[in-house]
Amino acid sequence: MKLVEVELRRVRLPLVAPFRTSFGTQTAREALLVRVAGADSEGWGECVAMEEPLYSSEYVVGAQHVIRHHLLPRLFSAGDVSAARIAGLLAPVKEHRMAKAAVETAVLDAELRASGVSLGTHLGAVRDAVDAGVSVGITDSIPALLDTVAGYLDAGYRRVKLKIEPGWDVAPVAAVRERFGDVLLQVDANCAYSLADASRLARLDDLDLLLIEQPLPEDDLPGHAALARRVRTPICLDESITSARAAAFAINLGACAIVNIKPGRVGGYLEARRVHDVCVAHGVPVWCGGMLETGIGRAANVALAALPGFTLPGDISASDRYFRTDVTLPFVLQEGRLGVPTGPGIGVSPTSEALDELTVSTERITPA
Ligand code: OSB
Ligand code: MG
Questions:
Q1: Residue 243 burial (C-beta neighbours within 10 Å; 0-12, 13-18, 19+)
Q2: Whose alpha carbon is nearest atom 5 of ligand 1?
Q3: Each residue of 224-277: pLDDT tens digit?
Q4: Domains of the chain (ranges plus CATH)?
Q5: Which of 2, 100, 161, 262 is catalytic?
């Protein structure tokens, strides 16, 4: 397609409850939506960068700047762009994967809408619904955590992930295991530990966790490999996995036995599929991570999670776990699962009422 106009729309969605992790507390999701328009097609993508650069170096205002000033000029001057060519066209710009992913997704959505093919079908989905997991933030007390988890299990979630950090790990996780029996349970540290904490993390081994996600800093693959030799619980990487090549390297080093795939973190859904393929080839299970997406990003994540290698439930929850009002029609749990959209492209669009209510700013960019 030839891009005629690109709209960068910042939306702000209050969270139904604060979400606390080792890197900070979120009370709202400020998201960047990208709409691309061609002569007779349009498509949507969501940039998953957060408001501040605390999960990774990208952040929403920076992503908007890089899209406007460094990514779009390359696409405008390329003439006819297809999603498959975008990574190559944008390769001169270092990193900024979340920004690149949002643009590539919007173009891919426009192409698929024009040809009437769903993203799930395009990527190779083999399921029409995916198991929903829920990521539970750090709370003020163990009783508060137990109440929160009880609510999610009542709602039907099929797997629970607890955020941990030094000072909030063995005791709360043990309390959840004790109270809720054989629920599928895992933990996520967002880089908050060091190798010196290996014996502490090994105390989680008795709690039958599916995995420990990203215990050490993202650049410490040797540390994760050493830790993996000292704990029985499988190590899963999130922040460290920035590409299919990074995944292959980490797996070969013994730094992880499971991979969390987040399309934004690896530069888009096409690279995410390659990460999946590399992991499947190595016998490494994958699951789809989340970044508190609106319905736009969620729709695409559900499609990805329907690929065959996604054998563990993802951080893909219903809209009401995050927001009172989503930008799309809400994703709703059905027996602990979310249906894969079947319409063309990502299969959903923002509703104009929600956009009117939630938009903070709109920037429209046309080729010079
Ligand atoms: O590390 O997986 C993470 C949210 C924001 C940034 C990083 C992470 C998360 C989550 C929430 O764990 C996943 C979700 O429900 O979207
Ligand atoms: Mg994580």
A1: middle
A2: 291
A3: 999 999 999 999 999 999 999 999 999 999 999 999 999 999 999 999 999 999
A4: 5-115+352-365 (3.30.390.10), 121-339 (3.20.20.120)
A5: 262
